[in-house]
Amino acid sequence: MTLPHNPGSVGEPQPPQTMAVHRREHFREEEQKEERQRSLHVGSSTRKRTFHTSEEEYQFSAADYALAAALVLTASSESSWEAHLRHQSSTVELEERGQKRVGFGNDWEKTEIAFLQTHRLLRQRRDRKTLRRRTEEKIREAKELRELCSGRGPWFWIPLRSHAVWEHTTVLLTCTVKASPPPQVTWYKNEVRIDPRLFPAGKYRIKNNYGLLTLEIRRCTIEDSGTYTVIVKNAYGRASSFAKVLVRTYLGKDAGFDSEIYKRSMFGPKVEFTSVLKPVFAREKEPFSLSCLFSDGVLDAEQNIQWFRDGSLLRSSGRRQILFADRQASVKVSCAYKEDEGLYTVRVPSPFGAQEQSAYVFVRDAAAEKPGAPGSPLNVRCLNVNRDCLILTWAPPSDTRGSPIIGYSIEQCQGESGEWVPCHKAPGGTCRCPIQGLIEGQSYRFRVRAISQAGSSLPSKTSELVVMDDPDEARKKIEIPFDLGNKITISKDDFEDSVTIPSAPTNVHASEIREAYVVLAWEEPRPRGKAPLTYSLEKSVIGSGTWEAISSETPVKSTRFALLDLEKGKSYVFRVRAINQYGMSDPSEPSEPVTLGKKQVTLPPPTQVQAFRDTQTSISLTWNPVKDAPELLGYYIYSREAGSSEWQTVNNKPIQGNRFTVPGLKTGKEYEFCVSSVSEAGVGEHSEATEPIRVKQALATPSAPYDFTLLNCGKKDMVIGWKPPKRRGGGKILGYFLDQHDSDELDWHPVNQQPIPARVCKIGNLHEGHFYEFRARAANWAGVGELSAPSSLFECKEWTMPQPGPPYDVRVSEVQATSLMLQWESPLYTGAGPVTGFCISYQEEGSEQWKPVTPHPISDNHLRISDLESGKSYVFRVQAVNSAGLGQPSMPTDPVLLEDKPDARQISVGVDEEGRIYLAFEAPEAPDSSEFQWSKDYKGPPDPQRAKIEDEVDKSKVILIEPGLEDLGTYSVVVTDADEDISASHTLTEEELNKLKKLSHEIRNPVIKLISGWNVEVLEQGEVRLWLEVEKLSPAAELHLIFNEKEIFSSPNRKITFDREKGLVEVIIQNFSEDDKGSYTAQLQDGKAKNQITLALVDDDFDKLLRKAEAKRRDWKRKQGPYFEEPLQWKVTEDCQVLLTCKVTNTKNDTCFQWFFQKRERPDGQYDPQTGAGLLFIEELSKEDKGIYRAMVSDNRGEDDTILDLTGEALDAIFTELGRIGALSATPLKIQGTEEGIRIFSKVKYYNVEYMKTTWFHKEKRLESGDRLRAGTTLDEIWLHILDPKDSDKGKYTLEIASGKEARQLSVDLSGQAFEDALAEHQRLKAAAIIEKNRAKVVRGLPDVATIMEDKTLCLTCIISGDPIPEISWLKNDQPVTFLDRYHMETRGMEVTITINKVQSEDSGRYGVFVKNKYGSETGQVTISVFKHGEEPKELKKM
């Protein structure tokens, strides 16, 4: 039923559907009213006895009543509101019918209304009581059901089971219990409750994980055997389960299933590593290798050795070799890339599981081509490879070298060509870019360079080779097998219909949206046909209503296309058309609106970066990973020493996890670390730096003690000694817990409850004649360490032999390449007499023979053993000697390898700031709890009366109080609680002590250090400055300046300055004169430090200084007006012109500048008032320019001049320079044919016969001018003329041009084609000259214009030449002249005359004489103008 939920909407007009609903609701309401009346009537009569009074009601809690009241109120309010809606609906319906209800308005009506209201009120009350009763019944039933379901006694779903384990292993007892509420759990052993607090830390671990109960018993011993019971109980009951634990003792390897023969036959050889993999720090483009050594047993498992990088199996390749030889496995990389960085693991199979070792390889960036350029990108990958496009991704470099990355450059190589060409630049600088325009079927590789303001990085490692192909091609093919292994391949394209015009593509959408590009994708048309398809794309800006074709350089063959030219802020829709050989399809449906994405931002840094100690050279880091970041590529870690501001890159390949161990750190140094997130948007910001952490060994429980030995034995007691743990856990050994075991008993018993600080323990209450074995555990601040293996069986029998017992605590220190120091403690049992000496013997590794170190016993408890062989391992032991003979040998030392440690530290000797002589030793690798134990002559600590020991962090000093001969000797120091030997010694000799005492005296009685003694300077204005410099002084330093045995102070003439901060003493004398002659002494004192420096200004030194000061003073006065900053000087230009230049300064507008030559003014000189430059230009220097040149500047403040003497040497220098430039300007020799012969010449810019000499050579023979050779020069040319050339003139010609001491040679080869061409040109010119000489010519005689009056006689005469004599004819206006009547021509030899009698106006015109012979012709022309009587000729009018 649907009701309106807004009561306020009832009075509004309703649609017909709403009225129909109201009508149906009205009828249903009338029926329900009648049913309620009947039920009320029946209920009132039949159920009256079922009601209870308030006293009879059930007792419910306050929560039950609250729940019931809420239900009643909710029900009543819902009923009331529902009834109100129904009433309104019925009212609306009656109004529509016109049947509005109206009362009669009389008393019976009022009585009836009151009755009905009372009746309704009673009914409501009865309904509420009924509802409340039903609610209470439901609450009670729910409560009973909840209690029935929740309450359950415990029972074991999975009980405990028994275990049989070996000694020293761990057992885990588990069971599963069901109970409600959760039960209380208690564990028992042999009916004794187990309380973990009463046992060693970590012995028992009890857990309850939601009903899964576990009891872990670590390092089980025989005492842990027994019955273990777990009891669980709650309010509904209890249950228990038990199991037996049997701990077995390991009896040896010689027989049974534990024998080595059986293990080898069943499981293979036992594998042990004999070396440890260490971190490798390689560099890009350089080789690196990792190797480890194995035991002999690995030879059988060689083929199963595997190398992994970050969990991925490695195999040999072109750059990587995996080798195994001589029990050594190695991986070698010939050319490292940052992709090779990672955790390398070598895994070798063994009988009880694979043995592994791991080490991290770091590959740092190679040196950049340009300083400051960033590191190269890495992990270049090709994604979404299609026919002609793909998506390229990479990871950003970790090290930008201080310049942020602004973009990436992408290069591609097609196939195996090896030619790399730039193809794209990543848009927006992100690490993702689409590549388009590739050729289908071709293979490609890609590499990327990072670009910053400082330059471009080296290229990254190339991507894998990809072949451009349709990714759906494989899915389109179906293989059908037949006939025993044969198969038929069918392509879906074979079933395509023959379609001419393709249909439109479908599902056009944006598959990838980025800030700089959008990748559009669509589906092929269906059906597509068999013809190959290409695609055409169109775009439209939302709201424009127009479609624009998207151009591409190559046809689009893939169903993907990247759009790189979209505008930000605009929305686009796209559609695609398919094209085949028959035509183009209709456009597809438009895509959804597409807008460029937001700019990618880098990811936030991880939080909670914490650093923990790991080893002596590494720190472990953890951090909270960045959440909700699917684009996360990993993390980069950065480190720096505390106090430094520059972060150093730790890893160059992003780390995937949230923990990392940073190796290669300096022991004892403090470091800070931070982490950055890496994504395609780049490297994010650094996280907050960790707190500075000192690189030290992390605290851990120690390893087990070993090598127990019996030092003394009584009837009922024994003295046992042992060696300390090899791994002390980075902390001080607080003591040892010792257990004993009687061979006649089953159980072990503790010897002590409190830790024993020493490594010697006396055990009492033993039984004489019984055999005992012992074991121990070391304890430090981290807890109790491993339990040692049981010692050998020692018989409790009193020692009575006369020889001494074994020495103990034999220790080795100060190990070097050929020597070491051996120390030990005297035996506790001395035998029949006191110990008189010790014998030391050694054994080489691999040998069973003990050799004595010294031929005779020694009396000391220490010995420096020398002359050992470097690189070998030795074992040493000591035996005590008394009067009865040689005693028992000590426990042998561990094998000692003799080698020089590169980082071994030595004792430094010096004098501190207070003048105290000290011996200091620094050990940053020492654990925090270590102590520095000093010894003098290996006999104990130095005498506290003569030396004081001061300890600092990782450093200790021995300070000599009163240095003397008693302090000479050998000082040694040993650092305790270190896993490796940290020790050193130094022998203080008398000579060294004397040097130290001298230095101590200098420090205790200091002298102010002199940096620079008295210096004398003359300042610009002629003042004299005296100054000296010493080291920096304190503010309390004092100065006393003494002049001629009298202290002087600052005065107007002498200004004294004392700068203590700079250590500068300065005296400036304004007017230096004879009164300042004498000695100056500066007396300095700064605390205890003193010094005295004296300067003597007398004799010649004073005179020179006085003259210099006066000259400076005069020069300064000169510079108060205009003066020449640069004097007059000459300069020769490249064009062989001479410039005289000078420069004046301190000028004004009215400053006058003048040039003079030989005391006469030169007006052609130039002057620039803006720059003060003066210039005099000499175009061609000659002897006439010889003389004295002078430039003068003046104004009302004064005048100054500068003079240049261009005579003598100065003029010769200019001419020499001109000659040098002229010689250098000579052009290469050229060959030219002439009428007379062959000419060889060179052009020069300048030539001067007096200062330049030229010499010609032919075939290295000097040439002289003669009948057939002519040499000469002009101002711009040097030439050689060969007249009437012959074959003998062929060869190499050389021109030598000498100017001063410099000479230049030019050569040309006149032979072969060059000679032939020049000779041909000579002959051609010679023939042309003959022709020109004999050609018919008009030589002279005819004017250009001739003017004559009418009726006069005109006579024109000209001279001609030519051989043979030329033919002669006259022309008038280019027409032949007929010689009749008035025209006459006369020829006399070479003279030709034309006469015109009684000229007339029609005789005016252009006349010419034409001469011709076999060599040529020529025309001479003249213009005749005839004027009448009384007229003025036209030519005169123009004038």
How does this model look, in words?
- This protein is mostly beta strands.
- Helices cover 14% and strands 41% of the residues.
- It contains 9 helices and 99 strands.
- It has a 5-stranded mixed β-sheet with strand order 2-9-8-4-5, with no helix packed on it.
- It is extended and about 180 Å long.
- The termini are far apart.
- The relative contact order is 0.03.
- Mean pLDDT is 85; it is low at 1-22, 40-82 and 94-105.
Largest sheet: 5 strands, mixed
Molecular shape: extended
The radius of gyration computed from the alpha-carbon positions, rounded to a whole number of angstroms, is: 59 Å
Q: How far apart are the first and last residues' alpha carbons, in Å?
A: 131 Å
Helicity, in percent?
10-25%
Judged by helices, strands and strand pairing, the structural class is: mainly beta
Low-confidence residue ranges: 1-22, 40-82, 94-105
What are the key terms here?
1439 residues; five-stranded mixed beta sheet; 99 strands; disordered N terminus
Secondary-structure blueprint:
Blueprint: H1 16-46, H2 62-97, H3 107-150, E1 152-158, E2 163-166, E3 171-180, E4 184-189, E5 192-193, E6 204-209, E7 212-217, E8 226-234, E9 237-248, H4 260-267, E10 280-283, E11 288-293, E12 306-309, E13 312-313, E14 320-325, E15 328-333, E16 342-348, E17 355-364, E18 378-383, E19 390-395, E20 405-414, E21 420-425, E22 432-435, E23 443-452, E24 455-456, E25 466-467, E26 477-482, E27 486-491, E28 506-513, E29 518-523, E30 534-541, E31 548-550, E32 560-563, E33 571-580, E34 583-584, E35 594-595, E36 607-615, E37 618-624, E38 634-641, E39 648-649, E40 659-662, E41 670-679, E42 682-683, E43 693-694, E44 706-713, E45 718-723, E46 735-742, E47 749-750, E48 760-763, E49 771-780, E50 783-787, E51 794-795, E52 808-813, E53 820-825, E54 837-844, E55 851-852, E56 862-865, E57 873-882, E58 885-889, E59 896-897, E60 908-911, E61 917-922, E62 932-936, E63 947-952, E64 955-960, E65 969-975, E66 983-988, H5 990-1004, E67 1010-1018, E68 1024-1030, E69 1038-1043, E70 1046-1047, E71 1054-1059, E72 1064-1069, E73 1078-1086, E74 1089-1097, H6 1099-1118, ...
Parallel strand pairs: 2-9, 10-17, 92-99
Antiparallel strand pairs: 1-3, 3-7, 4-5, 4-8, 6-7, 8-9, 11-15, 12-13, 12-16, 14-15, 16-17, 18-19, 19-22, 20-21, 20-23, 23-24, 23-25, 26-27, 28-29, 29-32, 30-31, 30-33, 33-34, 33-35, 36-37, 37-40, 38-39, 38-41, 41-42, 41-43, 44-45, 45-48, 46-47, 46-49, 49-50, 49-51, 52-53, 53-56, 54-55, 54-57, ...
Helix pairs in contact: 1-2, 2-3
